[in-house]
Amino acid sequence: MLDRKPSTTGWIDAVWLLFLLGLAFLPPINEKHKWLILFLMAIVQLLEGKLIARLPQRGPIYSVLLKIALATLLLDHTGMGPEDLAINSIYWPVFYLPIVTAATYLGTLGTLLMTFVTGAAYGVWLIPAWLSGYDITAENYSILAIRILFLFLAATLVNRFAIENRRQIHQSQELSETLEETNRQLQRAEADARRSERLAALGQLSAGLAHEIRNPLGVIKGSAEMLSQKLRDAQPLESELAGYISSEVNRLNALVARFLDFARPQNLDLHPQRISEILDGALASAQIQSPHSNIQIERSYASNLPEILADEQLCERVFANLILNAFQAMNGSQGLLRLSISPESFHGAVGVAVTVEDTGPGVPAAIREQIFNPFFTSKKDGVGLGLAIVAKIVDDHRGWIRLEDHSGPGARFHIFLPAAPQPAAPSPTKRLGSATK
């Protein structure tokens, strides 16, 4: 019955107060009860906005009923005729006040119901006229019926305009929300495009540098191993130093391999995969690499998830990296890792959303936009390629990854991966029957 509408106080309330003030200086001027009732009406009108804001569902009904009661009392103290009958009061249009309030805040059914109550409150003053033996003619009944019908007419018209106004406001709000969402998506797309350009340029640079560095590293490693073997017995100290050279060369080779992983195009081995199995495999891999982490795991996997078209090893690498980062962020604390999977649609594409959330210190706002950039890291021993490679793999799968803003502690990564295309249904084959003569 109710159609909620925000209440405001402003120039409309000022007009209402001027209207009530004008009534106060009309006959009967010396009627104290009339002044008191008009004053109470002004108070109800001023407090109406706060009442409706506090009680959105029942507040409009309370306000309408209060105005009906006060209007009914006003007629009782402004009656005219031989016996000052309330039904003859020239103040009967005051019943338009609760009618307008009902039509403004309530729906059609609520407006009609409150108008019926208002008409009944007006018509109830016929009873004292009957009891006093007042001669009520057919013309009197016609006048009363016309006045009540005009109440319904006014209520219907005002309610129609109020509903149309609320509909237009609702459409404007929806359009504004759509534009805001489109703007956010455009900003994300621009950020992804800029990141892709940086990744492409740095990838080419990394590939060239890695190739040029790897060749001399091979020579250094081979020479160090030969020195270590020749000096093992005669000069053990020098042999040990040659071993250090070899081990450091291995570390540099691993770093160069990561550069190449970032730089070279991925040859994806795409097959329909269950995302839950990939995520569980990544979790098991991360737990093996961090066996002493005292982290509680909380899984929330939706049922009936679509399969994704993915390279299982690369996708497992994505989630293992994110989970390892979460373990490291919560190191030494009783942390909680939340893993969730749910169906999601993005720009009409059906897929799955994976959320990796921890309760660590989180990512400072100053570096949130940079964490996916290559060679950016906040770790003392980090290279800054982990999340860059993660973002590249997700991009190669036609998905996206975001670091979401949320009110809780820690960091929450949101990954979207499109679903695998459904196989086309086989077309029905036509059977040709043999014709017999």
Model description:
α3 runs antiparallel to α4, α3 (59-76) packs parallel to α5 (108-123) and α4 runs antiparallel to α5 (108-123). Residues 1-9 and 430-437 have low confidence and may be disordered. The two termini are 74 Å apart. This protein is rod-shaped. The chain is α+β, with helices and mostly antiparallel strands and 437 residues long. Helices cover 58% and strands 10% of the residues. It folds into 3 domains: 11-136; 192-263, Helix Hairpins (Orthogonal Bundle); 271-418, 2-Layer Sandwich (Heat Shock Protein 90). It contains 11 helices and 7 strands. Strands 2-4-5-7-6 form a 5-stranded mixed β-sheet. It has a two-stranded antiparallel sheet with strand order 1-3. 25% of the residues are buried.
